[in-house]
């Protein structure tokens, strides 16, 4: 099982790649997954990234954690992906870990998964966080969710995910090695 960062056309590079880098530095074998029919996914700023796998190539049983980067139209493209929707709802039913940053928390919010929880996202997208308490914090970790505010939160978002998956000591070690401490 691996944490998987799901990429859709128009994703925000820093919100996908900085957490990926942090996780891998921490010894967590995270991978990127394209939700389209092509492994090459173009970011919101025109950078083409080759994903490790296609959505059609993965099994739900192989996914340890769902991680959604923001960016537009990346987050809206993730929101409309039927295969990802099924995976998210299956994860929600059993409380498996999920993360999203920037505009992407709307994917969970629109499905009612953040009701009664503290949540953060890019300002203006809080209207999609149905029933959540919007905090505007850089990162919110509540229950099985890790949520980030936006590009400036990409590193803290990555460290929070690493802490959830590998523990606080490993997260502190990677933070120090990357000169964030």
Give a short summary of the structure.
This protein has six helices and eleven strands.
Account of the protein in words:
The protein is of the alpha/beta class. It contains 6 helices and 11 strands. It has a 7-stranded mixed β-sheet with strand order 5-2-1-6-7-11-10, with helices on both faces. A two-stranded antiparallel ribbon has the order 3-4. The protein has a two-stranded parallel sheet with strand order 8-9. 49% of the residues are buried.
Give the averaged pLDDT, no decimals.
97
Q: Sheet bearing the most strands, described?
A: 7 strands, mixed
Structural class designation? alpha/beta
Amount of helix: 25-40%
The beta-strand count equals 11
Distinctive features:
181 residues, globular, alpha/beta, 33% helix, two-stranded antiparallel ribbon
Write the topology of this structure:
Layout: E1 2-7, H1 13-25, E2 31-34, E3 40-42, E4 48-50, E5 53-54, E6 63-68, H2 74-79, H3 82-94, E7 98-101, H4 105-109, E8 118-119, E9 133-134, E10 139-142, E11 145-148, H5 154-166, H6 168-177
Parallel strand pairs: 1-2, 1-6, 2-5, 6-7, 7-11, 8-9
Antiparallel strand pairs: 3-4, 10-11
Helix pairs in contact: 1-5, 5-6
């Amino acid at each position: 099982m691996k944490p998987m960062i799901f990429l859709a056309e128009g994703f925000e590079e820093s919100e996908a790649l900085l957490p990926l880098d942090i996780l891998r530095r921490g010894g967590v074998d995270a991978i990127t997954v394209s939700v389209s029919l092509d492994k090459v996914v173009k970011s919101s700023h025109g950078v083409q990234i080759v994903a490790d796998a296609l959505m059609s190539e993965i099994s739900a049983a192989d996914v340890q954690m769902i991680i959604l980067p923001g960016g537009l139209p990346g987050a809206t493209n993730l929101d409309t992906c039927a295969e990802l929707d099924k995976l998210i709802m299956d994860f929600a039913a059993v409380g498996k870990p999920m993360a999203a940053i920037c505009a992407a928390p709307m994917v969970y919010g629109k499905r009612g998964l953040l009701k009664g929880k503290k949540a953060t996202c890019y300002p203006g997208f809080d209207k999609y966080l149905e029933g959540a308490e919007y905090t505007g914090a850089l990162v919110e970790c509540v229950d099985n969710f890790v949520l980030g505010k936006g590009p400036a939160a990409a590193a803290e978002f990555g460290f929070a995910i690493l802490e959830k998956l590998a523990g606080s000591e490993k997260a502190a070690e990677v933070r120090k090695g990357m000169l964030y401490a």
